[in-house]
Every structure is written in C-alpha cells, then in structure tokens.
Sequence to fold (506 residues):
Amino acid sequence: MTNTLFDALFAPHQGKSTPFLHLLDGSTLTHDAFLRQAAQIGGALDLLGLVAGDRLALQVEKSAEALAVYAACVQKGVIFLPLNTAYTANELAYFIEDSGAKIVVCDPAKEAAISEITAKTGAKLLTLDGAGNGTLIDAATSQPEQTQTVARGPDDLAAFLYTSGTTGRSKGAMLTQDNLLSNSEVLKDYWGFTKDDVLLHALPIFHTHGLFVATNIALLCGGSAIFMAAFNPDTILEQMPRATSMMGVPTFYTRLLDHDGFTRDAAAHMRLFISGSAPMLAETHEQFEARTGQRILERYGMTETNMNTSNPYEGMRKAGTVGFPLPGVELKICDPESGTELAQGEIGVIEVRGRNVFKGYWQMPEKTREELRDDGFFITGDLGLVDEDGYVQIVGRGKDLIISGGYNIYPKEIELIIDDQPGVKESAVIGVPHPDFGESPVAVVVPEGAGPDTTQLMQACKDELARFKHPREIIILDALPRNTMGKVQKNALRGDYASLFTPTES
Ligand code: MCA
Ligand code: AMP
Fold:
C-alpha cells in the first residue's frame, strides 16, 4: 500500500530506536515510540469513523502527542487542519464549519466553548492537553501499536491551512502530499540536513514554518529535534550546546541578541541559523554576525506555496534578500496590472510556480482563480525584484497585510469589527514598526457623533479576535487621508505613525 507522504517521512523510521524528539523533561522519544503512538491514534481515528479525505481540526498546545496526531492523519489519509492556539471561539467556529471537520481536537480548557460549535456542525469533539493527556489519547491507548497505512497518491490532499484574506474571510489553502514532500526534500538538501542534525524546534506546529518546514525536514533527514512548547531565550541557550541548527522568525533572533548569554561561544556548536516568515532587518543580520561570527540564512515562503526562495548554504548569504528560487521553483516578477513579466531589477509582484504550489482554496473557486493562474503561476501579492546577482529582494507588499512576530494579521478583519461599533464613522488599521514583533497593528479611527468609547472598541476586538491581532494603539483622527480616487492612503498613515513604538531616528 503506498502513501506518498507517509512512506517518505514516517515509514522509514518504523522499528528504529533512533532519537526523534528530545523533550525538556530530559527524556528522548525515539522514532519507533513516536510512530507506535501515532499508529494507536490512527486506530482511534478509524474507530471514530474517519476515512481518507475527511478533515480533522486540531487546536492544542504543542506536544509530541499533537505531532503524533499529524502523523496519524498522514497515515490514514485524513486531511490535517492545525489551528493557532490564540484563536478565539468566534474565529474557530468559521474554520470548523467551513472545513466541514468531522473531528475536532481541542485543549480540555476550551472543551465547553468549542462544544457549542461542534454541537451545531455535528463534529465529534475530543481533547488533548499540553502534557499529552485527553480523551483522544484515552481512545488511542487500547489500540494496537501498528495500523494499516491508507493508500494516498501525490495529488491527494494532506492538509488545510487557513490564511486570512484581504476581504476578511479566511481561505483554506489545500496542500497536497506532493506539495509538502517535494518542498521538504528540496530544503533538506539545500540546507544540508543529515541524520546528525539536532534542530532547536521552538516554533508553533500549527503553521507551515514549524510543521512543514522544521518538522518535515527533521523527519526526512532522520535527525532529531529539541522540542520546546514555546520560544524562551533562556531555554534556547541552555539547549544550544547540543544543537546544530535552528529555524525561527526574526523576533527569535532579536530576542536572542537582547540576551547577554548569547555569545560566539554559545553559538559555536551550531552550523545553521535560518530565518523566515517575516522580513529581517539588515541591522539584525549584521548584529548577529558581529556577535556569533555566523550569518543567518534567510528564506521566503508562504502558506500556499511552502518555501519559494532561499539564500545559499554555501556561498554569499545576502542581507536584505531572500536568496534564489529553490530548485524546482520558477519565479518571475510581473507588472501588477497587466501581469506581464518585468526585466531583472524592476519591481513588481512576485509569482511562483512549481510542485510546491498548492491546489487552490477550499470551496473558493473564484478566489483560487484570482490568485492561481491557469498556467500554474501563483500571484503571491509580495512586491519584489531580482537583483543583479540573481537574489530576490522583497521590497513591500501589494496586499494589505501586517506580520507581527511571524503571525499574519489582515487589517480588514479588524476594521470590520471597529466599524461596527457605536461612534465610529470609519477606520484604517495599519502596521507600524515594532522593536520586538517587527510590526504591530494600530487602529486609526474617525469618530461619528460623540465618538467611540475606546475601551469598548478594544473590548470588541478582544471578544472577537486572537490576542496577536488586537490593535496595540487606537488613534482618533478627524479624517483619513485619501487620494484623488477616494482610496485611503495607508502609506501616508504608516509614515505619520512610523515611530510610535520605535525611537525617532535623527
Ligand atoms: C504572542 N503575542 C503576540 C505574538 N505572539 N502579539 C503579537 N504578535 C505575536 N507574534 C501576544 C501574547 O499573547 C502576549 O499577550 C503578548 O503578545 C506578549 O507575549 P510574549 O510572551 O512576548 O510572546 P511569546 O509567547 O513569546 O510569542 C512571541 C513569538 C511567537 C515567540 C514571536 O509569536 C511565535 O512563536 N511566533 C512564530 C509564528 C510563526 O511560527 N509563524 C510562521 C507562520 P499579552 O500582552 O496579553 O501578555 S508560517 C509563515 O509565515 C510562512 C509560510 C513562512 O514563510 O514561514
Ligand atoms: P503566510 O501567509 O503566513 O504564509 O505568510 C506569508 C507571507 O510572509 C509572505 O507572503 C511574505 O509577505 C511574508 N514572508 C515570509 N518570509 C519572508 C521573508 N523572509 N521576508 C519577508 N517577508 C516574508
């Protein structure tokens, strides 16, 4: 029975007592022990009536068991839908309904709130906590430690990851087995991962970066990962002497640089530091090199495409660039209006094509057509150029998006909530430079009548949205700047408030 992704990532480790996850309690989970538990969970999914192509949504703390649910889904051909632990019940309701998830796995602390959602959709609700206990594991423990692998081909769907849209509604990006496998194979080789690697894994496992890049590469190369529930610079520094590599968002690196214990010696055992998910300031690259003698390798990806470009492992890692298109990825810079390809050095929208590019948005054929061309090129919405040496530079975003600490925030989602509140005529949410998170959302609000109660405004955001999406500041303004066409000029607002969280440069 062949199953493209399972056969490549998991099956080769069956029965092997090689280390897979080093946990912070000092224990190490072997590949074999991990896969035996995954098989038990797979058996439980069978009993619960899940079949290939069904969706399983999971919003739980990071744990080895949560990763075993991913492995079980792959083995059973179930589409895995991991969800950010910060999402509120309101946000979750949409993902659960839209995806038609048959099973939802949540933290026991959220069971009551989520049961109201699953009661409506008919999904079965199970629990899993950060320590690896819950009703899902209870159901799994009586199952055999081996289970049948369900046949799946390269084009079958492996996962849905929801990404927000500029119009507010989130879209489920459908990723196939081949999307995930082809990309991790390329990255493993490009970045030189081998079974000797020990990866510092402090990223969440509900996004591409921590799951499909970090975890899949660790599985594919047969190395191990130091598996941490969250990023904590003290813990990272404790573990670094036995690690070889790390993947992180820029905030990981700025926080490490703020730590006195992060020295050249502390980093001496590491062969590779990788950054992505958000732009890294050239200044951070420079400080990092001055401190450690090593250069961070920056790469560029998207939920819909996995990784597209990377700076080289050997050769010059150029700060302010995201490197070259990866093997198998075609990249072109196009005129935003006409879609015509532009010459080297010119700025336009980045488009990419390759085995890495997703199949489309779940039940949104029109959105898919808007972003995925008939010839297979995906319109990223990022603005960039290819420089004289062939390196890709991202110079801005054609899409209205804020990235805070590696998490995406679509201003429209916040604006819709604010505009609905009493005393608000209209609003514009902008991303403002932030020393820790890179960018933070700020709401500029135009009052109506007596104006809004800002505490109430903030409360409305808190009720509806994950913490990382809450505006860090609300600014009341008589009118929004508009161009002659009447379009709100967010660039002007971003300029006006550029130094809100960062000292002004003189
Ligand atoms: C937590 N908070 C945040 C963020 N994270 N606020 C804004 N932006 C964030 N990213 C909230 C907390 O709830 C808390 O709320 C307050 O901010 C400060 O929390 P703190 O303890 O400082 O945060 P943390 O828990 O240390 O988390 C920061 C973090 C984390 C380590 C940077 O956000 C993180 O792991 N980010 C990685 C995201 C990621 O994996 N992105 C990949 C997406 P309060 O003030 O109430 O206490 S995949 C992707 O983008 C593509 C495909 C790619 O290219 O990789
Ligand atoms: P997501 O939709 O969460 O996958 O976020 C993808 C977006 O993150 C991309 O479209 C880029 O705007 C941004 N991104 C990812 N990596 C980088 C990077 N190295 N530099 C700049 N932006 C990045």
Residues 203-204, 207-210, 230-231, 249, 251, 276-277, 301-303, 404-407, 437, 467-468 surround methylmalonyl-coenzyme A (ligand 1) (CB under 6 Å). The chain has a mean pLDDT of 96.
